[in-house]
Design a protein that fits this description.
- This protein is an alpha+beta fold.
- The chain is 26% helix and 27% strand.
- It is built from 10 helices and 15 strands.
- Strands 10-11-15-14 form a 4-stranded mixed beta sheet.
- The radius of gyration is 36 Å and the shape is elongated.
- The relative contact order is 0.09.
Length: 380
């Protein structure tokens, strides 16, 4: 190992203004030169790691920028995002896989993840609800318990791998030939094959099953929340873990409520007379109707807050957001003769004349009428 870290550009033998294309070429060239399968020098492995590290950093625009400004402390030290280090990779094979964009390794026998989308109502999202999902997935065959053999029959040593469960494969790449050890395709790594295949699963060890699974939708879920139910995906190969079930939650729109964070938002209408004089109205909440006080002189657009009537914090202490009621002052559009007369009297007391149909220009009356209720007294 070198004690002092060498300059990444020097390692790859390129200039600081090299294009990404040049960088790639230089990486291939240097990696080829130092790959331990081809270069038997004692320090080839270290040089190879060095080349890789340099490429990992310089091919990432953000890390490259940090390196250009701060040098090694920028990418390795406290000053910047730390370099994960070569050890983060599984070995040489992984680096080639990542460079060539395809993995030749056999994935571990973990089962596939499943995804499911469900919609819940606004209220169910607020308080949580158990939901039953029906899903079809691959499960371990019940008849052979995944052994693939018809119950009561023997297994024999696999002829492909001679019971080893693994086979060596030679792979030709840009860098030369590599040997890879993979799980035996004939016996799927078991080392054994069956004499008589299980009749139910035709020797596959797995079977398609439709299951109903109950999932608890937690209180406070929002539109787009993704829930993970561990182990409810498809079964893994023998010894492999089952996959997970991902439940994407969609929250339906509600005709009364909408949501902002954990607060519930709604609009309530207030008659202009009540807005002027004050009073009490009843509004819907998630917990049922609630009375709220309307203060005298309430303006349209005023917000009334009902503490803790909102949505519980998901996974939290059960503390809830608030409900915010936007008050909309409503002007009656039909008046009896008596009501019209009272309003005219009221207008007079405000010193407003020309009220009523046909008096002056429509626009002017409207504005003055409005002013009488919500105009200059705003500051009080
Ligand atoms: Zn079976
Ligand atoms: Zn085999």
């Amino acid at each position: 190992m070198t004690t002092r870290k060498r300059d990444y550009y020097e390692i790859l033998a390129i200039g600081r203004n090299a294009t990404p294309e040049d960088l790639k070429k230089a990486f291939r060239k240097q990696a080829l030169k130092f790959h331990p399968d081809r270069n038997k020098d004692a320090d080839a492995g270290d040089r190879f790691k060095e080349v890789n590290e340099a490429y990992q950093v310089l091919s990432d625009p953000q890390r490259k920028a940090q390196y250009d400004r701060f040098g090694h402390t920028g990418v390795n030290g406290q000053a910047g995002r730390g370099f994960d280090g070569f050890e983060g990779f599984g070995g040489f094979g992984d680096i080639f896989d990542s460079f060539f964009g395809g993995s030749t390794r056999q994935a571990p026998n973990r089962g596939a993840d499943l995804e499911f989308r469900i919609n819940v109502s606004f209220r169910d999202a607020a308080f949580g609800v158990p939901r039953e999902l029906e899903l079809t997935r691959m499960e371990r065959c019940e008849r052979c318990d995944g052994t693939r053999a018809e119950p009561g029959t023997d297994t024999v040593e696999c002829r492909t791998c001679h019971g080893e469960g693994r086979v060596r494969r030679t792979q030709r790449t840009f860098f030369g030939q590599f040997q890879q050890v993979t799980s035996c395709p004939t016996c799927q790594g078991e080392g054994q094959t069956v004499k008589v295949a299980c009749k139910k699963c035709s020797g596959r060890g797995i079977e398609r099953k439709t299951r109903r699974i109950e999932v608890q939708i937690p209180a406070g879920v929002d539109n787009g929340t993704k829930l993970i139910v561990r182990g409810e995906g498809e079964t893994g190969g023998r010894g492999g873990q089952s996959g997970d079930l991902y439940v994407h939650v969609g929250v339906e729109r509600d005709k009364t409520f909408s949501r902002r964070g954990n607060d519930v938002i709604m609009t309530a209408e207030v008659n202009m007379v009540m807005a002027a004089l004050g009073g009490v109205i009843s509004v819907e909440t998630l917990d049922g109707p609630r009375d709220i006080e309307i203060k005298p002189g309430t303006q349209s657009g005023a917000i009334s807050r009902i503490k803790s009537a909102g949505i519980p914090r998901m996974g939290g202490s059960g503390r809830r957001g608030d409900q915010l009621v936007e008050l909309k002052v409503v002007t009656p559009n039909k008046l009896s003769d008596r009501q019209a007369e009272l309003l005219r009297e009221l207008a007079e007391s405000f010193g407003i004349d020309n009220v009523g149909p046909g008096a002056g220009s429509g626009q002017g009356i409207f504005n003055r009428f409005k002013d009488a209720f919500r105009g200059e007294d705003d500051s009080s």
